[in-house]
Amino acid sequence: MTRRAAVILAAGQGTRMKSPTPKVLHKVGGRAMLDRAIDAAQELGCDTIVVVVGEHSPAVGEHVKARLGQGAIAVQHPPLGTAHAVLAAKDALKDFTGDVVITYADCPLLSAATIEPLFDLHDTGAGVAVLGFEAADPGGYGRLIMGEDGALRRIVEAKDANDAERAVRCCNSGVIAADCRVLFDLLAEVGNANAKGEYYLTDVVGLAVARGLAASTTFAPEEAVLGVNSQAELAVAEAAFQSHRRHALMTDGVTMPAPDTVHLSWDTEIAGGATIEPYVVFGPGVTVEAGATIRAFSHLEKAVVRPGAVVGPYARLRPGADIGKDAHIGNFVEVKNVKVGEGAKANHLSYLGDGTVGARANIGAGTIFCNYDGFDKYETHVGADAFIGSDSALVAPVTVGEGAFTATGSVITEDVEPGALAVARGRQVNKPGWVEAFRTLKRANRKPK
Ligand code: UD1
Ligand code: MG
Predict the structure, then answer these.
(1) How crowded is residue 226: how many other Cβ atoms within 10 Å of its Cβ?
(2) Spatial contact of 99 and 2, defined as CB atoms under 8 Å apart
(3) Worst-scoring range by mean pLDDT, 119-123, 130-134, 144-148, 281-285?
(4) Where are the beta strands (DSSP E) in 257-396?
(5) Helix (H, G, I), strand (E, B) or coil at 242
(6) CA of 74 to the centre of ligand 2 (A)
(7) How many CB atoms lie within 10 A of CB 437?
(8) CATH 3.90.550.10 in the chain, residue ranges
(9) Which ligand lies nearest the alpha carbon of 81?
């Protein structure tokens, strides 16, 4: 198979985002747009990926370095246009032979499946392949100018277009593929005599055709190639992502009575047969297995919910929460780094942090796992079938044995052996008639006004 490479353009300033965070590190579906572009390139089987970054945002370079290594960074300075940006990647591709695709790091919905047909270059005999779309409002996009035979002849940028060209609605998404050597040969010829005084990548199409090479086009829905330039457009991309993912989950058999209120992450996994009630937020890293129910207004992050378990309403699962089969986590219960056993219940107002809860154990209302002393975290282990009385404070490290009870209101600082009852609270004393005696004394001592 022909080798594949990707050049991801990320050197734009992103000034319209008006944010100290570089544009391409803003997230869609909880994942940085840049990472989504890299994911797509990896999914396409690109063995070489180069990200073109500007000098103005070192955070972008750091991000690329952490994920792909220093070799994947090409710096473009100053930014003189998209062709100039691709040329910045030339050195990083000097040992590469094969096909290369250019993508943008600010197109968060661009998927490998949408790009894949561009790689049919050799089958279609194309020198360059362009991903186009029909724009509802072509505005500032580059226009795809076709010949009488319907084949792509050149791309004209909006600022350079005449009225007839401006009326064309077939636009350039920006994604272009070509044989690597052919591409750099063409790029060497690109000039900047145009309205913006920039080196346009899009000029390679006209240059290819002039050399007798064919230019092919593949079309995608506009939504699939959506670019982000502002916070408002980021929200539009997010909405499109959410809608797409929810739809896919429902297609897979997930019940979601109010899908528009459910917020998903890029990697949320929900099995068919699970139910997600309204207003549930999934942070990254959540798996919900078949037959589980996430009730309304719950927030989950890096957690697993096993078959038949019920979480919420108003529950919070934090990283490391593993809710066992048929277990119940109820309202205002927070679980962090705790494995909750099969059929266990914590139905009301509790904090379970760091430890384990055995199968069928019952955690009473208001229970707290006191896991932190300001320096270190410690674990609490509650055995199978244990019963933790309401308002118990379990001071970690501590273990409550299988089938043990803790009395309501106890502060448990020592391990409780299996089957034992632990009472750790002041004993109640009732003083009959005390109130009347107290009042009588007070009234007698009251000074006249
Ligand atoms: C570009 C295309 C246009 C297309 C549109 C789709 C060109 C000349 N035009 O226009 O045909 O319809 O995208 O959105 O290619 N970048 C760099 N270095 C630069 C300039 C840009 O890395 O010197 C990066 C930007 O960060 C961005 C991408 O390239 O990721 C596109 O640049 P942008 O300035 O947005 O191009 P458009 O004018 O939108
Ligand atoms: Mg743009």
Answers:
(1) 20
(2) yes
(3) 119-123
(4) 269-270, 275-276, 281-282, 287-288, 293-294, 299-300, 303-305, 310-311, 316-317, 321-323, 328-340, 345-357, 362-363, 368-370, 380-382, 387-388, 393-395
(5) helix
(6) 20
(7) 11
(8) 4-225
(9) 1
The answer to whether the beta carbons of residues 203 and 141 sit under 8 Å apart is no
Give the ligand whose atoms come closest to the C-alpha of residue 225: 1
Residue 79 CA to ligand 2 center (angstroms) comes to 13
- The span from the CA of 172 to the CA of 169, in Å, is 10
Q: Kindly indicate the confidence band of residue 56, based on its pLDDT and cuts at 50, 70 and 90.
A: confident
Cβ–Cβ under 8 Å, residues 73 and 61: yes
| Numbered ranges of CATH 2.160.10.10 in the chain | 231-422
Atom of ligand 1 nearest to the CA of 83: 15
What integer is the mean pLDDT of 177-198?
97
Ligand 1 nearest atom to the CA of residue 11, by list position = 22
Residue 278, preceding peptide bond in cis (omega within 30° of 0): no
The token duo for 21 is 């965070």
Q: Give the SS3 label for residue 248.
A: helix
On whether the CB atoms of residues 88 and 74 are closer than 8 A, the answer is: yes
**Residues sharing a CB contact under 8 Å with residue 376, sequence separation 6 or more, in sequence order:** none
**Residue located via tokens 């007698």:** 444
- Say if CB 104 and CB 8 are below 8 A apart: yes
Residues contacting residue 323 through CB under 8 Å, at least 6 positions apart:
292, 303, 304, 305, 306, 309, 311, 317, 329, 335, 340
Rg (CA), the chain: 31
Q: Using alpha carbons only, give the angle 90, 95, 97 rounded to the nearest 5 degrees.
A: 90
User: Which CATH number is 231-422 given?
Assistant: 2.160.10.10
Regarding pTM above 0.85, the answer is yes
Is the link from the previous residue into 448 a cis peptide, with omega within 30 of 0?
no
Using a 6 Å CB cutoff, which residues line ligand 1? 9-12, 52, 76, 79-82, 84-85, 104-106, 141-142, 155, 157, 171-174, 200-202, 227
**pLDDT (tens digit per residue) in 276-290:** 999 999 999 999 999
- Numbers of helices and strands, H then E, in the chain: 10, 32
| Superfamily for the 4-225 domain | Spore Coat Polysaccharide Biosynthesis Protein SpsA; Chain A (3.90.550.10)
Cα of 190 vs centre of ligand 1, distance in Å, is: 15
Residue recorded with tokens 């747009």: 33
Token readout for 414 is: 């020592």
Determine contact, residues 7/102, Cβ cutoff 8 Å: yes
Positions marked catalytic: 348
Question: Other C-beta atoms within 10 Å of 347: how many?
Answer: 17
Q: Measuring from atom 34 of ligand 1, which residue has the nearest CA?
A: 12
